Amino acid sequence: MRVLFVFIDGVGYGPAGEQNPVCPEVCPTLCALMDKAPHLDACLGIPGLPQSATGQATLYTGVNAAQVMGRHKEGFPGPTLCKLLQEDNLFIEARRRGLRVCFADAYFADAPEELASRRFKSVTTIMSLTAPETLRFQKDMLAGRAVVHDITRAVLVPKGYTGPLVTPEEAAGHLLTVAAENDLTLFEYFLTDTAGHSQNRERAEGVLRTLDAFLKEVVAGRPDDTLLVVTSDHGNIEDLSTRGHTFNQVPLIAVGPREDEIRAGAASLMDVMPRLLRVLG
Ligand SMILES: [Zn+2]
Question: Quick one: which of 169, 258, 259, 268 could link to 279 by a disulfide (CB 3.0–4.6 Å)?
C-alpha cells in the first residue's frame, strides 16, 4: 500500500460563527473529513500558543519537540530542532524500510544545493535535505510530477514564471501521479496559516476554496491501495478574531486502507509519525 500525506498548516477545530471560515459553505470536503477525524492536541503540555517549527518537527519525528525546546518555536527551526530532524525523521525511517519517498512540493530552485545554502529552511526542507532524492524542482512541476505549494502556481508569477497556471483539480491529478510512483508522498500547504494570520475573511475563504477543490479531487481520485492522511500543526484559520494561532485541537484525517490504525487512540501530534510508520510496514 501507499501513503499520501497532506499537511495543512494552521487548521484546527473551532466553534462555528462569523470568525470561522472553516464551514461547509466554504469548504464542504474538508469539513466532512474533519467531522469524522480524531482531534489531536497541539499544545504538547507546554505553556503558550503552539507554533509551526515545534509542531511540524513533532509531526515528522514523533518526538515532543516543544518539550525538547522547553517552549513552542515559531517559523524556522534553530540548531536544536535541526539536530532533532537530521538525526531521525519520517523520511529517514521510510527509506530505512526500503520505501520510495517523495516531497511533492516543487521548489523554486533547480538543485538540492540551492536549498541547502538558503539561510532559513522550513522543517520540511530540513527533513527533505536528509534524503535529497525526495526533492522536487521546477522541471518536475513542468512535467506534471510536482505541485507548487499554493496549488495553482499563481505564487510563481511574480518570481518570473511564465508557464501555465493549473486548476486545483489538475494539481490534484499531478499529486496523485506522484503518489502512484512512490510509497510515501508528502504535500505541504501553508497558505491556510498565512491567511489565518491576515484575519481577512475573503482571503481565508479563497484559500480554503482552492484547498477544498484540490482535496475533493484527491479523495475522488485516490486509488484503492492508497491511504490519504491529512493533518495540521496547530489551529489558526478557524478563528479569524485573533491574529495568532489558537489552542484548538487539529484533525487527523485518514481515508483508505488501514485508516483505522491511523485513527485509533491518536491524541496528539506525537502520535502521527509512529502510526504512519506502522502502516508503511
Ligand atoms: Zn503561523
Answer: 258
For residue 143, the CA-to-ligand 1 centroid distance in Å is 31
CB 146 within 8 A of CB 154: no
Strand partners, 6: 187, 230
Q: CATH number for the domain including 167?
A: 3.40.720.10
Q: Which domain holds residue 178?
A: 2-280
| Ligand 1 center to 240 CA (angstroms) | 12
Strand, coil or helix: 39: strand
- Residue 35 burial (CB < 10 Å; 0-12/13-18/19+)? exposed
Rounded to an integer, what distance in angstroms lies between the CA atom of residue 236 and that of residue 239? 6
pTM, rounded to two decimals: 0.98
Distance 171 CA to ligand 1 centre (A): 24
∠ Cα 216 219 222 (to 5°): 140
Provide mean pLDDT across the span 228-237.
98
Geometric angle at alpha carbon 222, from 100 and 237, rounded to 5°: 95
